[in-house]
Amino acid sequence: MFDLTFTIDAQDTTTPLTLAIDQMVIAGWTGRDPVARDKHIAELQEMGIAPPASTPIYYRASARRLTQEDSIECTGGDSSGEVEFVLVGWQGRVFVGCGSDHTDRKVEAYSVTVSKQMCDKPIASTLWELEDVIGHWDKMILRSYATINGQRVLYQEGTLDAMLPVAELIARGFAGGKFPDGCAMFGGTFAAKGGIRPAERFDFELEDPVLKRTIRHGYEVVTLPVRG
User: Fold this and answer.
1) Alpha-helical segments (H) within the chain
2) Would you call 78 helix, strand, or coil by DSSP?
3) Which of 42, 100, 179, 192 lies most in the core, judged by the most C-beta atoms within 10 Å?
4) Contact 165/137 with Cβ under 8 angstroms?
5) Domain definitions of the chain by residue range
6) What is the pTM of this model?
7) Which of 149, 115, 151 has its CA nearest to residue 28?
8) What is the CATH number of domain 2-224?
9) Which tens digit of pLDDT belongs to each residue from 111-168?
10) Residue 144 burial by CB count (10 A; 0-12/13-18/19+): exposed, middle or buried?
């Protein structure tokens, strides 16, 4: 267990809150369209990547991989980020944030579970109350930008109506359908425009077009050499 300090944005007030995080879950295959899901599974199988044991699937990774820093270090040049909404549980309440499931793609080719443990997972320092946004959840927008060879490009973009509803995502992954205190769960992502590729910087955001606010964060990717 370790502590992270967030700012709770409740529209008219902001409040600092230090939360104890003791587990991190990374939900995969969370899309609502089963046809698109199965097509993508088939594509990955053709590349030699095993299909998921279930859909959705809930991977576990060390909670200490969560970071609010503005840079991370990765071994080799085979990793990349992907924007996701993040749910955080605390004293029976659920907050919504935004993070990047930064993943080593070379490792992912032989074990998705192991790949989830290879890289730090940047998360923005702002959270919203789930109850403030659940009424217009499907309208919210995830977006990311990658800086590649010095050029910043739109990397991902989509609305949350493409993903499983929050209640269903929680019910399938947690006993009794109750989201646990101290848990941070990444909720899924969108395809990368132009394909998955590494970047020297990754910026991501969750936009609420109804309440006119955005959670943002970004980080540099420091590549460590592979010596053998």
Assistant:
1) 34-46, 105-108, 112-116, 130-133, 166-173
2) coil
3) 100
4) yes
5) 2-224
6) 0.95
7) 115
8) 3.90.850.10
9) 989 999 999 999 999 999 999 999 999 999 999 999 999 999 999 999 999 999 999 9
10) buried
